[in-house]
Amino acid sequence: MPRCAGFKPSGEQCERIVRAPQTYCFAHDPSRSQERTRNASKAGKSRPSSEIRSVKNQLQDLTNRLLSGEVDRADAAVCGQLLNVKLRALEQERRWREIEELEARLEAVEGVLKGRQKRTSA
Fold first, then answer.
1. CB under 8 Å to 16, separation ≥6 — which residues?
2. Residue 18: how many CB atoms within 10 A of its CB?
3. Using N-to-C axis directions, what is the helix angle for 50-67 and 73-121, rounded to 10°?
4. Which of 10, 4, 8 lies closest to 23, judged by CA?
5. Tens digit of pLDDT for each residue in 61-71?
């Protein structure tokens, strides 16, 4: 059975089996690098950021300190409200990044379409 012609990051030969006409597996196929990048980008977006983890940790700490009596209820309520504002700001920031990425992708598609139109009209 044919094996992938690619190499692992360690320098070892990839051991994945490929179909007869193929030379590379999905992970090593140069023609699929954009698809891999797109998939990695989507995966990266699905993970919560370190800032969100930090807010979750702060909320848990605040809850623990409130329940133990270290923090006054009014102070805890204000802290909770401020952390909520921070979460909303982080979400807004994520949305803007997503919009900017979509705009860039749309511009690229429009550029390809304009190039095709020029070729067909020439």
1. 3, 4, 25, 27
2. 19
3. 170
4. 4
5. 999 999 999 99
